[in-house]
């Protein structure tokens, strides 16, 4: 399993609307994609406009090819894109170790 | 529960040694701290010197006060600090939503 980690910074003061939009987009669009395994949405304490979105995929290509080249990607960006203050920074990770 | 998210960049070519050191430090030092709830260590695919360390704490102060002001913090940094190419960037998050 692969972790997609997306650094998101939104426009100030739009947290409440974005909280609804990102969960809607994940549930209605992303979660139906091939290889989708789950998500977590984290909100910054020190930086209230900062969100860290974690999406778990079976393979790297499930995100970079199957999702990004699908119509679902456009639908997702239509929902969450207007909130972005800058393009999200996205990279992928493998799990080295965990305790839980 | 609070997520501590630490962005770590290590010196090139030291991945194997750092993989052992960070797990050792987490198991032998951090996991015995007050309010510790768990950890995950993630290794970058696109950026092989990048690690994202997630530590879950009961409260923010369990990390920022109880851990950082303890001798355990020095012990932890003695184990992992020599690998750091730059000071880690650390912030804290609350969980907005998750699917798993």
Tell me what you see in this structure.
Two copies of one chain form a homodimer. With about 100 residues, chain A is an alpha+beta fold. The first copy, chain A, has one domain: Alpha-Beta Plaits (2-Layer Sandwich). In chain A, about 30% of the residues lie in helices and about 35% in strands. A four-stranded antiparallel sheet of chain A has the order 2-3-1-4. In chain A, β2 (about 35-45) and β3 (about 50-55) form a beta hairpin. In chain A, α1 (about 15-30) runs antiparallel to α3. The relative contact order of chain A is 0.30. The mean pLDDT of chain A is about 95. The interface of A and B includes residues 19, 39, 41 and 56 of A. β4 of chain A pairs antiparallel with β2 of chain B, so a sheet runs across the interface.
Entry summary:
Chain A has 100 residues and is an alpha+beta fold. A 4-stranded antiparallel beta sheet of chain A has the order 2-3-1-4.
